[in-house]
Amino acid sequence: MIKTEKLDKLQKIIHANAKAKGFWDGDGHRSQSTLIRQIALVGCEVSEAIEALRESSSPAYTTPIGKPEGWAIELADAAIRIMDLLEFYDISLLEMIRVKHEYNKKRPRKHGKRF
Description:
Layout: H1 4-20, H2 32-55, E1 61-62, E2 68-69, H3 71-88, H4 93-105
């Protein structure tokens, strides 16, 4: 199991890097429009994972210029965006996962759905 401190530290490092690279320029305030924009960027990364899968079944590979590509890489990008956003709001991703997992353990098989 991942130690809480390690994931929380990684979340802080990811957010600090995003700020240093200018991804929070002009978005340094908590507003609904900022939140919507940042959540939409997570969705974009998931869409890019689908497109990457359509292009290649390889989960991860490196281009000749050294850029990591593939559907697993795009999902990692989504996780990075999520961690960045939650850190901006001082919310621990690990704690949110634990809360949701504990609830999911009590739910019926397939959450009561047929598919």
